[in-house]
Amino acid sequence: MNERVLVLEGYDARMYVERGHLVTRDGFANEGKIREIRFPRGRCAVERIVVRAPGGTISMEAVDWCARMGIALSFLGSDGTLLNCLVPDAPHDGPVKRAQAISAVTEDALELARYLLGKKMDAQVHAIEKDFSRLEIGNSCGRSTATAQIHACKESLMRTITLVDFLALEGRAAQVYWDLLVGTPLPWKPWAMKRIPLHWAAISPRTSGKRERVRDATDPFNAVLNYCYTLLEVETRIACEAVGLDPDLGLLHTDDRLRESFVYDLLEPLRSKSDVWALELLRKEQMHPAIFHELRDGVVRLDPDLAALLASALMPRFRTAALEIADEYAKQLRRIAVPRRLVREAPKPIKQRRESWERSSCGYCKEPLPRKGLKFCGRDCYLRYSVEVAKPIEKAHARLAQMRAGGLDPGHGGEAARKRGAALAENNRRRVTGRAASRIGIKAP
Q: What backbone torsions phi and psi does residue 412 show, to the nearest 5 degrees?
């Protein structure tokens, strides 16, 4: 188990709080594999808990414990889909959400769509040029042709103005990208090649799902990708909450009552990274038939050990990538001017407001100040003003002379004399008390 990610499996998984500790219990009792972990509040490094267990219980105290510790709870279905994600509350950003809401119905939607799809195509090109050559996927001629075709799709984005055309370009680039991957041999252990179906030996197209559903993959690699995309969905959902984006207000993925559409928009540029990282991990660990389960209808599911390995190894990397793309998208939204009907005039950007401010002049050199609220150009003008204009020493000498002319000496009499007398009286009291205490043999207070 990674210290930052915990995956719960089994038919009797439990999460509860006992004496201030979070207790998790999972595993398969029929196999003799039961795991119990206790997390104290002061030493809990877990940041994500992924629940893949088909049965079990979670107490309300455990949910509250995780929320207070900043732990995100994710619940996955048997097919690897994300059922729910409980994210600790983060600071809200109303202006960003309002800009996100109106962007789909204004001209800003075109720029945002080009931004997202451009990032996705750039990631595909980077994967083909850097990672595919390192992983020996395809040949140099095929990789060069694929990158040229994806670049052409990206250039066509600037002339596209409808959602249908945007999705067509995205699909064309994805097809070119996947054509290079299809047929790549998977890193099976040598003895396993005689025990697996023929179509398990290499990467299959993404359209090879059962019942025309990509989620119901019938080969191991696409089953791994489905699970990795779910983990990426979890991290993207958390990243949206972290930067103040609304996960429901989609742009390329249209609104759906039962889908967080914008999450799918935002994770599109990260899919190629997920593909590469998953393939690297499988090559490192070496695949064998025991880590996959084929159902009666041919659908492939992951073994709990492989699911836990993927989550612990990839979720921290997904977290960094998702936060980066979410923050960049929020910056794009902050540039949008939001029209308002219920106010006379929309607030101007801060740069324009600064230009309209009435700037005062420096108190010493009388030059215009760079911004509102300043009194001096800098420290040099402030010091010169203090010495040459304010003249605090000369004013102090004049005040002393005035007091002495009136028969008052600040050093002898008035408040100074009262304080000095009080100090002398307290000193004398302590001296007398100390002598009396020493005579009777007790310690003076």
A: -135, 100
Quote the CA–CA distance of 6 and 325 in Å, as a whole number.
25
Query: Strand 21-28 relative to strand 72-76: parallel, antiparallel, unpaired?
Result: unpaired
CA end-to-end span of the chain, whole Å?
61
The mean pLDDT values, 10 residues at a time, for the chain of 445 residues are: 82 91 89 87 88 91 92 88 86 87 90 94 94 89 94 93 93 93 91 90 77 73 93 94 91 85 93 94 90 89 91 93 94 85 64 64 82 80 84 83 74 67 80 65 55
Question: Strands 33-39 and 21-28, how do they pair?
Answer: antiparallel
pTM, full prediction: 0.73
Between the CA of residue 33 and those of 9, 10, 53, 163, 254, what are the distances in Å?
A: 11, 9, 14, 51, 44
Work out the number of other CB atoms within 10 angstroms of the CB of residue 80. 22
Predicted pLDDT at 343: 64
Q: Is 187 exposed, middle or buried, given 0-12, 13-18 or 19+ CB atoms closer than 10 A?
A: middle
Closest CA to 279 of 321, 224, 318, 320: 224
* Residue range(s) defining the domain that contains residue 170: 94-334
CATH number of the domain enclosing 27: 3.100.10.20
As a three-state string, the secondary structure of 202-257 is ECCCCCCCHHHCCCCCCCHHHHHHHHHHHHHHHHHHHHHHHHCCCCCCCCCCCCEC
CATH of the domain at 235: 1.20.120.920
Whole-number pLDDT of residue 30: 78
* Lookup result for tokens 């959602």: 163
Q: Give the number of domains in the chain.
A: 3
Question: Do 400 and 309 share a structural domain?
Answer: no
Tell me what pLDDT residue 131 has: 93
Q: Is residue 371 part of a domain?
A: no
Chain-centroid distance of CA 231 in Å reads 14
